[in-house]
Amino acid sequence: MNLVFFGTNYDGSYFLQKLIKDFKIKIVVTDLIINDSWGRFLKRWLLHKKLTEDIARWRTGVVLIDQSYVTKNKFIKILKEFNIRLGIVATFGKIIPKDVINSIPLGIINLHPSLLPKYRGANPIFWAIRNGEKEFGITVHYLNEKIDAGDIIMQKKIPIEDHETIIDCKKNFFKEGTILLKKTIDMIANGKAKSFPQKGDESTYYPPAKEEYRTIYPKKHDYFQIKNIIRASIGGGGAIFWHQGKRILVKSISKTLPKRGKFIKIQVKNGNCFLLY
After folding, report:
1. What pTM does this model have?
2. Residue-number span of the structural domain to which 266 is assigned
3. Are 222 and 196 in the same domain?
4. 20 to 30 Å CA-CA from 59: which of 24, 140, 159, 220?
C-alpha cells in the first residue's frame, strides 16, 4: 500500500523516520521552498539536504514535494500517478484541501497530541501543562475539512507528572505516537479500522503558544500557575518575565531562597517566591 506523508519540522521528521522503514511511503510533503532572507535560505537548504540524505538512507525512490503544492491542482494528479492509497499527517502546518482528502481512497489520518475533542488546535501539550492537567493524550483520527474534528480511530491517555516539562511529555508523545500510528496503518491496510465521531459539544480549541501566553504576571498568577507556565514553555521559546524594562527568560521557580544562580524575588497571590534565570 503506497502512502503519502505530510509533516514539517523536527516532530514530522521524527515520525517520518520511524514509519518509512516499515511502510511504503512514496511521497513526502514538507517545508522546502526557499523564498526570502539568507538565514531562511540556509535553514531551508539544510533542511532539504538533510531530508534528502536521510530519506536516501531509509528508502530509495521517495519524492519530496513542498507543502505549497498541496493547494495546486497537479498535486492530486501526482497522488494518482503514484497510486497513493492512504495519507499520514504528523505535525503539518498547512490545511489540506477537501478535494485532496477525497482523492485518496482510504483517506488521510492525523496524529494529534491530545485526547480529542479536547485541546484542538496548535500546541495542545503546552496548553495541557499550562492549565495544570494531570494527563494529556494522543489521538489518531481521520482528516476532514475542519481542524482536528475528524472521526477518531485510536486514542491513548498519558499521565503528566508534577515534575515533568513539555520536553518530557513530547518524548512520551513520540514514543506512544509512533506505536499508535503503526497500529492504525496496519488496521486500515487490513480493513479492520473502526472509527467514531467526535462529540462536538465537548470540544475545546486553543491558539498557538505565543509570547503572551508564556509571560509571567505576578499580580495575575499564583505560584503553581507560574510553575506550570515555566514547565510548558521550556524548549519552546521559554517563559518570560519583564523586570525593570528587561525581558528575562525564566528557567525555574522556587519558594525558598536559591543558594546559587541568578534570581528575582517576586510577590504572588500566595506569598513570595523566586524566579531563577
Report:
1. 0.88
2. 211-276
3. no
4. 140
